[in-house]
TrEMBL record:
Recorded GO MF terms: protein dimerization activity
The name this protein goes by in its record: HAT C-terminal dimerisation domain-containing protein
Superkingdom to which the source organism belongs: Eukaryota
SUPFAM superfamilies on file: Ribonuclease H-like
Protein source organism: Macrosiphum euphorbiae
Residues annotated as domain HAT C-terminal dimerisation: 87-147
Pfam family, one: Dimer_Tnp_hAT
């Protein structure tokens, strides 16, 4: 982004770079503060095992884990090979990589660490909407068209065609 910004400044002959720099720095600082206030309250007692499953004391945990998940967590925290793997990779990649060995823990951890993984559906819907709603189709009822556009269900065309009644001539 900043290489494009440099080109923009050069093309538009903007001389007050310090003012623009201050605006960008202020924006980034506000963004950082917003993220910190929004995500700082990680429930350590309840979900601390996700952050580091090897540094927790299971007896002191105040969690609502099922019996299966408690057993998986005890096994996981005792595995030295996984401890090394955890230290060498990021949390999300670690939890995804042990999905087959510890499915229950992995499922909860991944869903906690990746809460925004499904935003692509919103982006897909918006893109479909911009294609469907253009200057030639402004008066349409979009609900049905949009539902079909973003659905991942493939239509059975043979069944649809067989149920359709052919237009009879007058």
């Amino acid at each position: 982004m900043f290489s494009c910004f440099s080109e923009f400044i050069a093309d538009n002959e903007i001389f007050d770079i310090k003012k623009i720099k201050d605006i960008i720095l202020l924006h980034l600082e506000n963004l950082k503060n917003h993220f910190n206030t929004r995500f700082e309250k990680f429930p350590e007692k309840k979900l601390g095992w996700i952050r580091n499953p090897f540094s927790i004391n299971i007896n002191e945990m105040n969690s609502e884990l099922s019996l299966v998940m408690n057993e998986e967590l005890i096994e996981l925290s005792a595995d030295e090979n996984l401890r090394i793997k955890f230290n060498e990779t990021t949390s999300d990649k670690f939890w995804i990589s042990i999905k087959s060995e510890y499915p229950e823990l992995s499922k909860v951890a991944v869903s906690t660490l990746l809460p925004f993984a499904t935003t692509y559906l919103c982006e897909t819907a918006f893109s479909a909407l911009t294609v469907i709603k253009n200057k030639y189709r402004t008066k349409l009822n979009l609900e049905s068209d949009l539902r079909v556009a973003v659905s991942n269900i493939k239509p059975n065309m043979e069944t649809i065609i067989s149920k359709a009644q052919a237009q009879v001539s007058h």
